[in-house]
Specification:
With 109 residues, the protein is of the alpha+beta class. 21% of the residues lie in helices and 43% in strands.
């Protein structure tokens, strides 16, 4: 979890787990992240090796390639292989760029 927090801190963007409290959302760009699942490795009927799915969601009000590149550079520097997708959230007037990856040993806090 420390590495994930370090990446987001290095980005210089505001971030929160899952969402910001109502009325406290910063102006875009900002990041929300969550750990929606796991792909643990089992041995002898027990979790032998923890692997958690990570969703890192970048929100912007306009398509901002420089912010995306900065975040991708940080992920690359930390040796994180990710899949990327993008969607427009009409109700929020925001772009969401989703980075999905797995990370070892994360525990839900």
């Amino acid at each position: 979890m420390k590495e994930l927090i370090a990446i987001m801190t290095e980005s210089g963007l505001p971030f929160a787990y899952d969402h910001f409290a109502e009325g406290e959302s910063p102006d875009p760009p900002f990041i929300c992240f969550l750990l929606p699942g796991s792909d643990n490795f089992a041995a002898d009927g027990k979790v032998y090796y923890k692997i958690n799915e990570v969703h890192l969601e970048l929100y912007t009000d306009t398509k901002d390639l420089s912010v995306e590149q900065k975040l991708e550079d940080l992920l690359d520097e930390h040796g994180i292989f990710y899949e990327k997708s993008e969607t427009w959230i009409d109700s929020e007037n925001l772009y969401e760029v989703l980075y999905q990856f797995e990370q070892e040993g994360l525990n839900h806090a």
